[in-house]
Amino acid sequence: MPMGIGMAHAAPATNAASRQMIQFDIPAQALDSAVLAYAEQSGVQVFFDSRKLAGLNSAGLHGAHAAEDGLRQLLQGTPVRYRFSAAGQVGLERVEADGQALELGATHVESTRDGDWVYMTPRSVSVVTRKQIDQRPPRHAADMLEQTAGVYTAVNQRDPGLSVNIRGVQDYGRVNMNIDGMRQNFSVNGHQQRNGVMFIDPEFVQNVEIDKGTSAGMGGAGVIGGIASFATLDARDLLAPGKEIGGRLRAGHGIGELGNGTYFNGSALFAVGNEVGDILVGHSERHFGDYRSGTQNAGNLGTQMRGKLEDRQAWKSWLNGEVGGMDSVTRSQIFKLGLNLPDEQRLQFSYFETDTDSKDAWTVKDSGSHDYYYRVTGTNDINARNAALDYSFNPNELIDFKAKLYYVTTRQDRWNANNASSENSGNRVEDYTDRYQTDTWGLQLQNTSRWHLFQADSLTFNYGSEAFQDTFRPSTNRIAAVNETESLPYVQGANPKGKRVMASLFGNLSYEHDDWLVVDAGLRYDRYRLTGKTGVTTWMYPEGVTETNLRRQRTDLLFEEDREEGRFSPTFGIAVKPGLEWLQVYTRWGRGWRPPAVTEAYMSGRPHGGGNEMVYPNPFLKAEESHNWELGVNIFKESLLRSGDRFAAKIAYFDTRIDNFSFLDTNASLPGSSVSGIALGRSVYQNNLETTQFRGVEYSLDYDAGDYYGQLSYTHMIGSNDFCSNQFYLGGAQQLVSAGTVLRPVQVGSRIIMLPVRVSRAEANATENNRVSCGDIMGNASYMPADRGSLTLGMRFLDKTLDVGMRLRYSEGNGKNLDTHGYSQIDQAMWPKYKVYDLYASYWMTPSLNLALSLENATDEAYFVAMGDVNNLSLARGRTLSGMLEYRF
Predict the structure, then answer these.
(1) What share of the chain is helix, strand, coil (3-state, %, to 5)?
(2) Fewer CB in 10 Å around end: N or C, the chain?
């Protein structure tokens, strides 16, 4: 009898995917065929020798189970044990009567594909696999997510930082961006497109999981948009049963003139391991330079960008010239040490570090030559370090315990060029350096218990706690201009010092019946504490004073805050299969809660280093409360059009409503004023008095017939939002009223006589204090993200060793201001429509050696990525050809 193996998505117990519930339907039968059925349905690679399973039988497996739990139950009562050795790989051993184990060998038979589990999960979740990442080598980390339904990224092509937007929601922790569970909470206020970024090297990413909406599980504390989890490689991804040494070498480069600023990109990974433990070490380098943007269909860019109508020649120079200031270097290291302890215990230490250097630049028009050139306005040295200690203990179905202690520190040193004012103007600010640093400590504890009730029912209870602390440590050596006056006695800029601590308890109970009904309910309690010092300097009339000529006086309002608050957030979901095994309908509802971040509440100062703009703090900012609801359909059908093919689809309507949504109000009035609406440039975070709603429809379709395949994803956003707030956000509007007359001594000639004199006093101005203004917003929420989608078509040749394909990336854009640029709002909706075609090929010349080619933007389209940071005005790359050579051993 031949040896057998199955292959698909699942991973060892340390990987997030292995915790997903999988529907099994395996009747009682011979154990070797039952194991093959398990591999087909779970997607786990099972290494075994069928001959050594002869004569053994399995009682079968039914219902929903995690991958490892299902295997444990399938093998129950047989003299066979298992051991996970790599991501999605498990080896079987037969134990003889004398206690000795006979290892069951392995060969390779392909079954279900990576990522299929998302089409069997009754909630909105997506996965980006390593194979998808390799099809289009990412130059920016955001490239990994561009094909994922419901996910956007505000891309600044110069800035390697990644900010994930899920269904229109991003910034300040609304989306939990994490690496192996470690929250990436670095925050620098920057042009309101990315207030919170993370740094991840795509070379070390094994997969990306996107969990949309609120969650009653690990990682959901303070989250209202969703969770973006970037899982890095483990040693076990490079090893296999019986293979104790493994590695991966990758080297890539742009090809010829079509390399277009793509230089060396590659990595080296080495792993050793056995039943005692394993070690992984790795290094990566990524080098990029100035590039040419696309030039075709430039009419889609509209008439307002770079003064197209005012100076056509200059506009052409911007479009056809190189995008300058784009050179960057990123170096990363990874180290993991894992120990397999007795009684199904594992301890692992992880460390990875990314150091990246990049530039800030702006286009400047040369009035003499009518050309645009790029002036470097700053340089960035960013270092992000992550360290974690993980422990797991899984002796039985009642105890599946996991713990993590982690520390993340991200530091940015930014050199800023002088402001170009003349020496004698009094406005000169010399070049200076800012430092921004965010330190995060985190602790996670959780356990999962599982019960099998009767023959067709199962119950799963996941419960635990998480806590994290963010500390912000900014500094600067900036020296104010002669004419510049401090707006606060101690102003430190738009990134304040402060600390936020969050702690959470959660529990989620899931019940499954007979493979057609799934019901789950969860509850979490979040509590936070926010500490910091801030203040506002304004001019106010003195209270309780009656004077003839009453004048405003400088008033310092200082706040030393120590706020604490908590909230319960429930979730509920139900899924049914209405008589068709391949169809599942589900609906989910949940509430979320996000308290304000340090930057939102305490930031103060001049955001651009000069000028008259000011950002003021709001220590009374309320927490956001979300109501999430969705209705979805899962389809997973095998042998649809031909034997052995499979079709999968996930379609969901979502509706997220947020009360007290925090936005940057650009026209706020300070206490002491008598008139509102004349304070443009005075900005402060305020809570939206209207309900903020993000809703739409997501489509993900996937067909694979072996020799050919296709994937389609599309996101359609619906509606728009109004942003309204109190004009006087701290109150304190004042007005002068007549207080009658008083007798005052008045000198008339040589005599002093008493005469009645009119006097005034200051009163609260109720009309102005109650005034509400709308539309004064700056930020990524100003407009709904533009609809976008992608279509991938591919074919496999030469016994599936050669994979070639084409990808279309499309967005209908949001061109509201493309031809009618005005400043009724500071932000403009400048996301032009585009159609971008990519080509790719991957050829495994041997089982260990792969050559991959990628032609990005084959038609040389001029475009911005949907919801890209157009304030930066750097178009995406034009036609670019690159190659990657990969060797595994």
Answers:
(1) 10, 55, 35
(2) N
